[in-house]
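Per reviewer request, we include the raw input and output of the structure prediction for the construct analysed in the revised manuscript.
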Amino acid sequence: MALRLDYVAGVSPSKWLRAWSDRRPDLPLEAARVDEAAQLDGLRSGEVDLAFVRLPIDDEGLHRIPLWEEVAVAVLPKEHPFAEEAELSLADLDGEPIAPVQPDPAMTIELVAAGTGYAIVPHAIARLHHRKDVVAIPVADAPPTRIALVWRTERDDDDIQEFVAVVRGRTARSSRGDEAPTMKPAKAAKLAAAERRAASGAGKGGGSKGGGSKAGTAKSARPSPRTGQGAKQRHRRRGR
């Protein structure tokens, strides 16, 4: 008996395969790379237990855990006028010819090298099929792609969940409930900003030691009420 895992180009599952081998030597894990167009075929047929796929997918009947995002890059011939740019936008590429998209990304990039146009692909794909006659430049406003781990809902057993634990970094001693939920980047940024404001406010407010705030300093700098003969004369002139 063995677990079967499919993965698309651009995913490198070796670290999880090693971790699984150390953790479950009794249950081998067999992995195979598949074309993106067929990334769900083995899973749907029941021949495969889990799959690393590139979203979006039809996830009916599937459990899905989104993992990491992939930056989009424009693959261009090395002699292209934009080849030396550090970053591009979609507007920069407007009007440029597009290379015919092939089922095999390597063939698409080969067509780019042949001068048929440019292609926008995930950075992992461009790195996997790197060639000396093309360049890959990040496209700032192109939507990123995302990799996810999926499996069938009826196959949600302890072995599957143990592999999910490996991918999510849980140790053998931790439970599913021990894992802290992933915080969205926007929420994390707001929390960090709030913490900085709180820290800044604490620093300005001062404490019981080490000096007071500006407001306290200004208040203590006010002259105290004058007394004595001069003060009495001013009071008499004001009718007090």
